[in-house]
Design goal:
This protein has a four-stranded parallel beta sheet, with helices on both faces. By secondary structure, it is an alpha/beta fold.
Length: 260
Amino acid sequence: MSRSLSRSRVSDLPDGCSVPRQMCRVCYMYEMAVSTRKTSAPSPKAGDKGKRLISAHRPAKPAKPPEIRIFVSYSHRDAAAREKLETHLAPWKRDDVTVWYDKNIEPGAQLDPAIARELRNAHIFIALFSPAYLDSNYCWNIEYRRAMDRRARKLLRVVGVVVKPCGWKHTRAAGFKLLPDDGREPERWSSSDAAYVNIAEGIGAVIKTVRRELAAAVPKRPPTPAASATKPKPPVSKPPTPGKARAKQPPKARARSRKA
């Protein structure tokens, strides 16, 4: 039987073997190998491999723009102008821009701490100039003054918007560019909507500038060094030269060596 096994191939063992299958060990191992091949998992299809390659080369999603918070300072007498401005800022509100004013304070919350907190967290401060705004002690002497102090420290952008004819030219706001163009109140435009469109475009330009500054201020992560570069190399010990070893030998040992 050993000769027949050596001459035949493994695949021909069951057909050329003369021993009954219940007694032949080679036939048993052959049948086990065939059954294992049949029950093994199928190889991945070519289409699945292509899908994995496509998913691996998908472009990364663009980074989400940073959120911009706008603080609107206004007199309650000018609530209609504030509502109209917020309506024209709707496209920006869909683009992660939050417009905050004092009506957003929850009932029961303290007014001054809530306003001070939102003013600290704001990126842009919008003041709606009107006779009522200039006459309001809280609007002009507290909110606007705090905003200008933060602007002096380059922590906030301040934008003045003239919504009604008033004497803003005789205040400290006269040295800054106001909206709409040239500080013309909406009443002097062909339509109030055209004036508010101009206001929204000017505020949108400030939003873009603030976003660029925030994106540039984000620190970039340094590249991680390779693993081989981080591992310190072990010191290489050089074998001592014969001359140095002889120089370190004590004088008695030298004398003995000469006598020997």
